[in-house]
Amino acid sequence: MRVPKLPKNIINFIKAHELFCWTFIVFIVWNILLYGYEIVAIMRIPLGEYAITWKNILISTWHHWDGGHYLSIAENGYQGVQYAFFPLLPLLIKGLHAILGHSYALSGLIVTRLFAFGALYMLLRLAHQEYDSIDKAKRIVIYLLAFPTAFFLFSVYTEPVFLFFIISAFFFARKGNWLLAGIFSFFAALTRITGMILLPVLLLEYLDQIHFNLRKIRFDVLYLGFCLLGIGAYMVYCYVATNNPLEFLAAQKAWTDSAARISSPLPWTVFITETKKLIPFRISGGYSINLLDYSAVVLTLITICAAIFMKSIRKSCALFVGLSLLLAVMSGSFVSMIRYVITIFPIFLVLGEWGKHKAFEFAYLFIALMLQANLIISFIYSWWVA
After folding, report:
1. How many CA atoms lie within 13 A of 354 on its CB side?
2. Domains of the chain: which residue ranges?
3. Alpha-carbon distances of 355 from 123, 142, 297, 349, 358, rounded to whole Å
4. Distance of alpha carbon 36 from alpha carbon 384, whole angstroms
5. Which pLDDT does position 378 carry in this prediction?
6. 64 three-state secondary structure
């Protein structure tokens, strides 16, 4: 029996768009695996407050915690301390809901999963551009998907949206297209306050490309200021809505106080405090999450320091990792760091480089996937993860 061949035009399309097609297949397979794992878990452990329906399996279990706030903002506008959540994701959800006319939760999932696909595709293109190796680029994407909290990329959270914009900004900066790099940094800053660190990071990349010869600076360097316009746009909105352009900072302070974080912390003070939380060792869900957050910070620091020592990371990428960690730690604790790390994409570039050693690849994938399997169960049952 002869196996039918694909039409020639389809084969030519796949060859011409190999990176896109590979990303699409991986994206679909990963979604199927996530839902398959969720169904198996729910069959073994009832959902409690949720009835076992297709709607709950496909939608309701994927917008817990912060996701609920983004959906609320999209539907009802900002309320009180919700100003801490930046506006782009709620705006996108509201816009799609106006088109589809279905539930805000469904619109939220569609938005974030489209951006998750975009983030994976842009990461693949960036890695391929950096290393000129399709195999290494694919390995980097797989390592991101295997990370313990990668399932947040498929939930109603800002992770996939922010990751798409920062990777895109880096991708076009590496190509010397500073206008597009600036535009993507603008949207990154509208997604999260940490988007503002793209200004010094991309400025360093700009200077690095001209070999720090100030005479070669051109007017296109001004495009890098677009990320400040993103923050500025939200400040204008806050001023109109609350008469306080820095309302988002006041709201973030309220969240900080409610989470018992250290006020006005120094990084080493936070590090000492978080270390003390882990002493003595004990067995509990809260302790396990604290240990994961602590490990995320320490291992990220070790990874980036090793990469700098081995000169296997660009200056701008190293600065992005450092500023991302610094800004997060200065919030007053390591809470949610295991989730926050998935947007610090240069780490996965480094891990992909190390993955050429099979022992490292096996250890990383085994540990990461085992942790992710446990954390997914916690998340779909609305237990605190990050």
Report:
1. 20
2. 9-156, 158-258, 260-354
3. 16, 11, 20, 10, 6
4. 22
5. 84
6. coil
